[in-house]
């Protein structure tokens, strides 16, 4: 009798489990899908530009390009690592444009991301102005890019900005968007690429590679000499990188040619 009772209880339990309704999936949280990524882009870009500006303003002559290179690269690596699961850690308009062109984000988020990055750039540059002595800030032109002094430098500077932004954007796409080459080492690799580019091209163009990094200090210091170079070059480099992934380097899903 006891055995029969236990069997009936087991049967009832099984029937109850079968009759359970599957858990209702929660609708996407609008804050986490729209507002939080944009806020993360503001905060991430803000701290990146803040640290980058201070590294230039407070740079000692003996350090040369090493100090800004290490600071920018390490700041990128840290911010990418901690913000990746919130916004994807773009912090750079060419990255956002290239990631969209490679299918890594929706069109509706492109505009908000670009605006957020520019806001973050201005806030970060403002923080550096509050932190550093006025004389040093003035001598460094607020860490706006003042390498270019004449039109004879423009061709080399534009080419450098295009080529080096292409390189770092290509690395971002390969480690974060292209499924065949995705890796958890993305923050380290992107940070190292930034360090390499600044060490190589710092004296040619300042190695901006990021319109938000150029825009914030330009606003704070009101320094606009050849500022357009730091928009045209990086955006051009980002477009070239996206084309390389779409035509040559991407996996079957990403590549638009020879993918059968």
TrEMBL record:
Pfam families: MIP (PF00230). The keyword Calcium does not apply. GO terms for cellular component: plasma membrane. It is found in: Membrane. The chain crosses the membrane at residues 38-57, 69-86, 98-123, 154-176, 188-208, 228-249. Keywords: Membrane, Transmembrane, Transmembrane helix, Transport. It is a multi-pass membrane protein. Belongs to the MIP/aquaporin (TC 1.A.8) family. This is Aquaporin-8-like. It comes from Seriola dumerili.
């Amino acid at each position: 009798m006891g055995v029969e009772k236990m069997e009936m209880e087991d049967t009832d339990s099984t029937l109850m489990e079968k009759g359970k309704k599957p858990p209702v999936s929660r609708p996407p949280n609008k804050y986490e899908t729209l507002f939080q990524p944009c806020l993360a882009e503001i905060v991430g870009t803000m701290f990146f530009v803040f640290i980058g500006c201070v590294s230039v303003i407070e740079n000692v002559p003996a350090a040369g390009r090493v100090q800004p290179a290490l600071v920018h690269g390490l700041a990128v690596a840290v911010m990418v690592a901690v913000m990746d699961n919130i916004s994807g850690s773009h912090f750079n308009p060419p990255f956002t444009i290239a990631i969209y062109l490679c299918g890594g984000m929706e069109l509706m988020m492109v505009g908000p991301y670009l605006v957020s990055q520019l806001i973050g750039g201005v806030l970060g540059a403002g923080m550096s102005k509050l932190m550093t002595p006025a004389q040093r800030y003035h001598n460094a032109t607020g860490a706006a890019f003042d390498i270019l002094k004449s039109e004879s430098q423009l061709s080399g500077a534009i080419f450098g900005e295009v080529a080096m932004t292409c390189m770092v954007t290509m690395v971002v796409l390969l480690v974060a968007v292209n499924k065949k080459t995705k890796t958890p080492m993305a923050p380290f690799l992107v940070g190292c690429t930034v360090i390499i580019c600044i060490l190589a091209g710092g004296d040619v163009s300042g190695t901006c590679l990021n319109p938000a990094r150029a825009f914030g200090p330009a606003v704070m210091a009101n320094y606009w000499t050849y500022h357009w170079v730091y928009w045209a070059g990086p955006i051009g480099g980002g477009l070239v990188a996206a084309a390389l992934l779409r035509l040559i380097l991407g996996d079957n899903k990403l590549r638009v040619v020879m993918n059968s």
